[in-house]
Amino acid sequence: MTHKDKSEEAKLRPATRLVHGGTVRSPFGETCEAMFLTQGFVYPSAEAAEARFNGEDPGFVYSRYANPTVAMFEERMALLEGAEAAKATASGMAAVTAALLADIAAGDHIVASRALFGSCLYVVSEFLPRLGVACTLVDGPKLDEWRAAVRPQTKAFFLESPANPTMELIDIAAVAQIAKASGARLIVDNVFATPVLQKPLELGAHTVVYSATKHIDGQGRCLGGVVLSNAEWVGEKLIPYLKHTGPAISPFNAWVLLKSLETLELRVTRQAETAASLAEVLAMHPAVERLAYPGRADHPQFALACRQMRSGGTMMAIELAGGKAAAFAFANALKVIKLSNNLGDAKSLLTHPATTTHQSVSEEERARLGITDGMLRFSVGLEDPADLAEDLSAALDAALAGTERMRAAS
Question: For residue 288, which of 357, 376, 366, 349 has the smallest C-alpha distance?
Fold first, then answer.
């Protein structure tokens, strides 16, 4: 295999890294990165096998530990994120769980923002306590709550920004300072912002996680996740956890994600531009009671979005005045935009969080988070912006008409 000079790759600009970063070539000199669909590797001698296993030879041992195709994806992600090291996992939730569990134990304590994806909330508030790890949930934007939640046993902070699905922002740099002062790691789920629009490590975070299933794949094809941090923590804490618990990504999925990275910046930039234009259309429609989009000046944390994000992103929350009936009427009237609980796709996707992604969250907690029956999460795709605007407007008209009929009947 022929390897590139990592120091030279680090000098390249992001768009170039996304095309060439981390590439290794076999003796055949292939243009497209090779896919190594193998679970194991052979050794020229017993001595060579021994050297691989004791770390004297850096070659591959078993694809549950590492694989050439997976390693290329990890290296390219690290170059994009500006991280020292990255490890891929089978899904985004595998990445989240690994980032949390890699170096905590019974008796430890974590602090997490209350506004989390439903499965993340389950891990921190239900699963980890069963293992003897205490968890305190805080209102993420309130820095005093982070400070007050710290205990001597606090080992990690965990947050999403923007949050799923409310689009609430958290001051990552400020929370990172609190975490550092308390000796805790700050783990940031950066899936909504993507590595193109936000760099948590530059803001002071210790670890960043992604569901690569979302924007990184971006075409609805496969599952994947990735954890990024400094080389020491990855080597000493994360790799042993992954090696022995086994949430390994398929080399095929890693290859798909590797190829997707070539167009990530192009896709996210275009999607964010379209989202900004559609936000203007949505905000003006009488059926919309509230629109949450970080790129608009009426977002409560617009100033923070300007500081820590390159743009408003590809995601928004739409709240309709007519509650669940209006939300369903709007969703069912869409023609171009598809209904799906995925996000970050080339296809524009819409979901009703209260009955899908956050269905398992209690009604009381949803109310506390601001996830109402009239809220819809909208992921903007790559379609023509005019077609999307027309589709949204027609569906909103239908929802508004239905709401007015119901009011008249009552």
Answer: 376
Query: 18-69: per-residue pLDDT in tens?
Result: 899 999 998 889 989 999 999 999 999 999 999 999 989 989 999 999 999 9
Peptide bond into 162 cis (omega under 30): yes
Pairing, β 349-351 against β 288-292: unpaired
pLDDT tens string 286-315 = 999 999 999 999 999 999 999 999 999 999
Domains of the chain by start residue, with CATH: 2-263 (3.40.640.10), 264-409 (3.90.1150.10)
Cis before 247 (ω within 30): no
Closest alpha carbon to 166 in 8, 405, 373, 371: 371
Q: In 192-286, which ranges are E strands?
A: 207-211, 225-229
Encode pLDDT of 167-220 as tens digits. 999 999 999 999 999 999 999 999 999 999 999 999 999 999 999 999 999 999
Residues 6+ apart with CB under 8 A from 195: 77, 80, 81, 208, 210, 264
CA distance linking residue 342 with residue 336, whole number of Å: 16
- Spatial neighbors of 163 by CB under 8 A, at least 6 apart, are 113, 115, 116, 140, 169, 170, 192
CA distance 290 to 287: 9
What residue has token string 């009237």? 333
Distances (CA, A) of 80 to 16, 265, 345: 10, 10, 20
The pTM of the whole model exceeds 0.85: yes
pLDDT exceeds cutoff 90 at 10: no
